[in-house]
Design a protein that fits this description.
Blueprint lengths: L17 H58 L15 H44 L5
């Protein structure tokens, strides 16, 4: 940061003794130091605001990435996924098995539903093509 002329109000008296002159110089130096410290405090506050904004963005990105990672593991078909040994009789493991089976059933049901919708769409498309070739105008 380039040095700037500081407009610090000085005492409006003429020192009459050597001690007053020394004290006046000390006061002026302290005023300059105080002004510099105030400027530095403002700079630090501005940096803190920018840092908080950046951290908020990074926090959101990390939360999204972690959530995406959790979803990916359950969809992939791995029950535990971390490769570590697990106590198979634990309540937590049992709950995970139930959730995994439920998600597998839901995925299979969704897949069959999508297949049925696609078949229905293909049938409608074939019907439309037949009607078009025979010359029927169906709206």
């Amino acid at each position: 940061m380039p040095q700037q002329e500081l407009s610090i109000p000085t005492l409006y008296f003429v020192p009459s003794t050597e001690q007053e002159c020394t004290l006046s110089i000390i006061i002026q130096r302290l005023e300059i130091e105080n002004e510099l410290l105030c400027q530095r405090a403002i700079e630090l506050q501005a940096a803190n605001v920018l840092n908080e904004a950046c951290c908020a963005v990074l926090r959101e990105q990390l939360a999204f990435k972690e959530e995406k990672g959790k979803k990916k593991k359950t969809v992939s078909g791995w029950l535990m996924g971390d490769g570590m040994p697990v106590l198979l009789t634990g309540d937590d493991f049992y709950e995970r098995v139930v959730q995994w089976e439920k998600s597998q059933e839901e995925a299979a049901a969704e897949k069959t539903n999508q297949r049925a919708v696609k078949e229905e769409w293909n049938e409608e498309k074939e019907k439309w093509k037949r009607d078009k070739t025979t010359g029927l105008n169906v709206l």
